[in-house]
Amino acid sequence: MKNNPPLKGIKVLDLTQAMAGPMATMLLGDLGAEIIKIEPPTGDQSRSWAPPSINGISAYFLSVNRNKRSLSLDLKEPKGLEILKKLVSEADILIENFRPGTMNRLGLSYEVAKGLNPGLIYCSLSGYGQDGPQKDWPGYDLTVLASSGLLSLNGEEGRTPIKFGVPIADIVSGLFANNAILGALYERTGSSEGQYIDMSMLDANFLILTHQTFNYFATGKNPRKLGSAHSSIAPYQVFKTGDGFIAIAVGTEKLWKVFCSSIGRDDLTNNELYSENILRVKNRDMLVEELEKTFSKNTTSMLLQNLLKAGIPAAPINTVEEVVKSPQIKARGMVSSMETPYGKIPVTGTAFKMSRTPGKVTKAPPLLGEDTAAILTELGYDAEEIESLEKAGVIKRPTPQ
Length: 401
Hints:
Layout: E1 11-15, H1 20-30, E2 34-39, E3 53-54, E4 57-58, H2 59-63, E5 69-73, H3 78-90, E6 93-96, H4 102-106, H5 110-116, E7 121-126, H6 141-148, H7 168-191, E8 195-200, H8 201-207, H9 211-219, E9 236-240, E10 245-249, H10 253-262, H11 277-282, H12 284-295, H13 300-309, E11 314-316, H14 320-324, H15 327-331, E12 335-340, E13 343-348, H16 372-378, H17 383-391, E14 395-396
Parallel strand pairs: 1-2, 1-6, 2-5, 6-7, 7-8
Antiparallel strand pairs: 3-4, 5-14, 9-10, 10-11, 12-13
Helix pairs in contact: 1-7, 6-8, 7-8
């Protein structure tokens, strides 16, 4: 018996751009939902975020827009809104990331959408939420990182805060939105009713402060920037070696003793400065200096081999090239390639490894408006009507490659 994807039959209208919303909908698509990406005639803003490009398509756009169909639609045109309303009437989920109030001005607030489809799950993903004194602030990854407190923790003491190398605030927000949508979808199986989701990037990223928020509650003091170090565990950070760097995480007292033995430093085990974690955290700077004296006499690969053999959590600092080519990523099927209308491209795999209904990558990121004609045909528009809509600028179909 063939198993269907977990979200087969679920239709999602994706009115999002950039990273947070597209990440959420891509994951729903990996699980089998039909994703209709509704883009303005100019396309998702990330289509222009280049270089670099792959076969003429922005690498940024490619990263989070697989498993989607593209409908290019001008929602400011009455006929464009009419098409969207027809789609809403048969959809399960709508997700948008416009500024608060934009959907109301376009004529498709949640109340209007609910009137068309009481079972619709409608998610608004914004920088700061739909209410509060900062609701109208524009929200991008960097500004949300800053306002959430996360940026204040990243980097080294006395130096400029450092943004993470990927838009982590966007990604976290997409994951939270995804969870909320799946929760609402499950609840609907019992109630048959949809609901409105007000997903704030600030709320989501405030929550991932986790223990740092409670460190503040406990002490009344702002947590320090510690570089790669952990605020409550030592040794737990990146260390210099004789030829590079290594990440080491010693999370228990048992591991501490094994760790000291594995690096030939049994003398540290009972040292009164380092005999328990609370002391190692207090005397972290001295401990790091002591450990790096030993590490400087070893190569990264030699240290890694000894530490892993002893069961100590450790890892090299892989470059993107190294992780893409790593045997573990290869074994997990996390990199492959796909033929597309614009040529062969590399694709990343799905993290949904499930025994009966695993996630799948079935469709490449689409050209702008690639599926416009097909979607309108499914809605009942004939070829003449579609051509008329295109001439009026309501829709856009892709230029042949």
